Amino acid sequence: MNYLRLGVNIDHVATLRNARGGAYPDPLRAALLAEAAGADGITAHLREDRRHIRDTDITALMNGLTRPLNFEMAATAEMQAIALRHRPHAVCIVPERREERTTEGGLDVAGDIARLADFIAPLREAGCRVSMFIGHDPRQIEASAEIGAAVVELHTGAYCDFHAEGHFSAREAELDGLRQGAVLADSLGLEVHAGHGLNFETVGPVAAIPEVRELNIGHFLIGESVFIGLGPAIAEMRRRMDAARA
Ligand code: PXP
């Protein structure tokens, strides 16, 4: 089967740093370690409230990384200007509500087609691969193709939540939706990524979906690094992805 890339999200290294307000631990240092451990790319989400990644982190990542940066951002004018200044390899448009703890649901592309088409046009012209973070609803996938996105990232949060709660039939139904969504997106010429909430237990079935070309994983890897170290956590995730793909 084709190669499945692993993007490592380093947001929560910044969360830890910000807990003390200083410069340690440094997200760029974690990102370089992640690259050395087998990450194919680094993902960072500059939230409007700057609760983890800061503007200076994005500059440091753009200057210091050897692998592509996947810049996650909300569809706001401020974020668009920042992305156009840095021109990262990829821009992933995510929904953002200030009160949420993390990115809780997918973007409503179908309900905002005209605005999002206009919003991503300059990013596409600047050479960024634009990705829409959506659920597996066919309407959202078709709308993402319609506005000219290159990539869809399918939200795996519900699948992971059902697994954690022991709702296995709901988990399987969600996995089926992800599989069908991946087939549809691929047939429309979209590159398929997936992510949110993945861990050692849940990664295999998603990694086994042939149309999925990249996984973006953050919180679990940073958490697991407390116990086994970031390099070994990434290496084990990579091993499980490869085993599922074989
Ligand atoms: N993909 C997207 C688009 C996200 O917004 C996030 C969370 O920032 C992730 C992947 C990674 O999710 P997690 O940190 O739960 O692995």
Structural commentary:
By secondary structure, this protein is of the alpha/beta class. It has one domain (5-245): Aldolase class I (TIM Barrel), CATH 3.20.20. The chain contains eleven helices and eight strands. The chain has helices at residues 11-18, 27-37, 55-64, 77-86, 113-125, 138-146, 157-165, 168-187, 203-207, 219-228, 230-245; strands at 5-9, 41-45, 69-73, 90-93, 129-134, 151-155, 191-195, 212-217. An eight-stranded parallel beta barrel has the order 1-2-3-4-5-6-7-8, surrounded by seven helices. α6 links the parallel β5 (129-134) and β6. The longest helix has 20 residues, at 168-187. It is globular. The site of pyridoxine-5'-phosphate has 19 residues, from β8 and α10.
Shape: globular
Number of domains: 1
CATH architectural arrangement = Alpha-Beta Barrel
Proportion of beta-strand residues: 15-25%
Helix content estimate? 40-55%
Major β-sheet, in short?
8 strands, parallel, barrel
Terminal CA distance: 7 Å
Q: Report the CATH C-level class.
A: Alpha Beta
Global mean pLDDT: 96
Unreliable sequence segments: none
The small molecules bound here are:
pyridoxine-5'-phosphate
Task: Work out the radius of gyration.
Answer: 17 Å
Question: How many DSSP H or I helices?
Answer: 11
Class per helix and strand makeup: alpha/beta
Arrangement of strands in the largest sheet: 1-2-3-4-5-6-7-8
- SSE topology string: EHHEHEHEHEHEHHEHEHH
- In the CATH hierarchy, what is the superfamily? Aldolase class I
Q: Could you give the count of β-strands?
A: 8
